Amino acid sequence: MDAYELAEKKAQLKSQFRKMDKNGDNKLDFNEFLTLMSGLDAKTAHKLFEKVDKTGDGTVDFDEFVDYIYTSQRTTAGRHARLMAASAVATDTENESLWDTCMAVYETYEGSDKKFESRDFKKLCVDCKIFDRRFTKNDVDIIYSKYKPRGSNKIDFEAFKNCIRAVATKKGTSTEAIQAAVSERISMGVETTCTKADSVRFHDDKSSYTGMHTANEFHGTGGSADRSPDSRHARIKEAEAFNHGEEEALDWDKVQAVFLKFTDGDNYIEGREFNQLCQDCGLLAKTFNRADADIIFNKVKSRGERKIDFDQFKDACIGIARKRNNVLSHVQTLIMESSGPQRHGVTQADDVRFHDDKSLYTGMHAM
Questions:
Q1: What span, in angstroms and rounded, lies between the C-alpha atoms of 103 and 107?
Q2: Burial class of residue 98, CB neighbours in 10 A (0-12, 13-18, 19+)
């Protein structure tokens, strides 16, 4: 280090020394010295203070301090002192009146455990929106590590103030600007991040229906069809209107007879049996397939139930007629012409061959 650099370092250190010298006597007591060397723990700072205090009067004057720093180049304590002197941040642009507000914000971010840790400091920087190209989230960790006591992850308010000053230096702005940004959080507190709930949509708001639900007349009735006779009669008339004819629905007794053949004796059919009825009665077509049968079955069945009765089956027939673009009587006719459940996928047994049927012998056995 040449004479010019040494003089520059001493001038910088002199400025910091005067800031810590509260009573202006050009001397620092131990508490003032500890504030200046905020990166050291109390034990290390006390040892360093005793070595610097050559006169033993319990204070350190500026000359003693500078002489120790620049003549103790081989000692650990001297290295600590030089590092702290080099890392000292300027306080010329501070606003002393803002520190009280900053302390209130500091205590808010401490939380109930009264610990201000690195994550709290980073959260504060995020909430204050002070990140830019010069000051990134990686710089937060570097600055915090610089001023936290060794062996601990929490800092006191004096170390927090030094962090604020270092942030201002890193950003190339005044400390007062960072103080002001921190002070604004006093009325807002810690900013919480949570998932915003979707807007509430009621099940009977038909304007929000999409796809197949747009034309589902059973929405708003708990997922089940209206069972009133008048409503069924209206739907039957509407089903016949697909063919624009005047034909009335046929008698339901014969349809019910076929329906009962597909039940298990309890006058109800399940979705699988309903699908089989549609197949065996020849109701399946290009415009009405097995998937359509499942959809119609789920429309007419009561919520929470797995089976439908004959009245609900009538509603299903109406839905089938609409899907096939037929009149209801045509669907009834197809059902009535069915003889009941058909056997599907049955493997036919081979012809029985008896071992004593000599006409079947071959080769040497034929002799």
A1: 6
A2: middle
Residue 27 bridge partners (DSSP): 61
Q: Please count the other Cβ atoms lying within 10 Å of the Cβ belonging to residue 45.
A: 22
Domains of the chain are 3-86 (1.10.238.10), 96-186 (1.10.238.10), 224-336 (1.10.238.10)
Q: How far apart are CA 329 and CA 239, in angstroms?
A: 10
Answer whether 171's CB lies under 8 Å from 130's CB: yes
Q: What is the DSSP track for 195-221?
A: PPPPPP--TT-GGG--GGGGG-TTTTT
Q: Residue 269: phi, psi to the nearest 5?
A: -125, 150
User: H or E stretch including 268?
Assistant: none
SS (H, E, C) 67-134: HHHHHCCCCHHHHHHHHHHHCCCCCCCCCHHHHHHHHHHHHHHHCCCCCCEHHHHHHHHHHHCCCCCC
pLDDT at 296: 94
Task: Answer whether 32's CB lies under 8 Å from 21's CB.
Answer: yes
Q: Encode pLDDT of 170-195 as tens digits.
A: 888 888 888 888 988 887 777 776 66
- Nearest Cα residue to 296 out of 322, 334, 276: 322
- 3-state secondary structure at position 288: strand
Is a pLDDT exceeding 70 seen at residue 248? no
| pLDDT, tens only, 17-31 | 777 777 777 787 777
Give, in order, the Cα–Cα distances in Å from 2 to each of 9, 63, 292.
11, 19, 92
What single letter denotes the amino acid at residue 209? Y
Cα 115 to chain centroid, rounded: 28
Q: Is 354 left (phi over 0), alpha (psi -120 to 50) or beta?
A: beta
Quickly tell me which residue has 């290295």 as its tokens.
79
d(CA 345, CA 77): 93
Give the span between the Cα atoms of 145 and 148, in whole angstroms: 5
Contact predicate 249/328, CB 8 Å: yes
DSSP label of 185? G
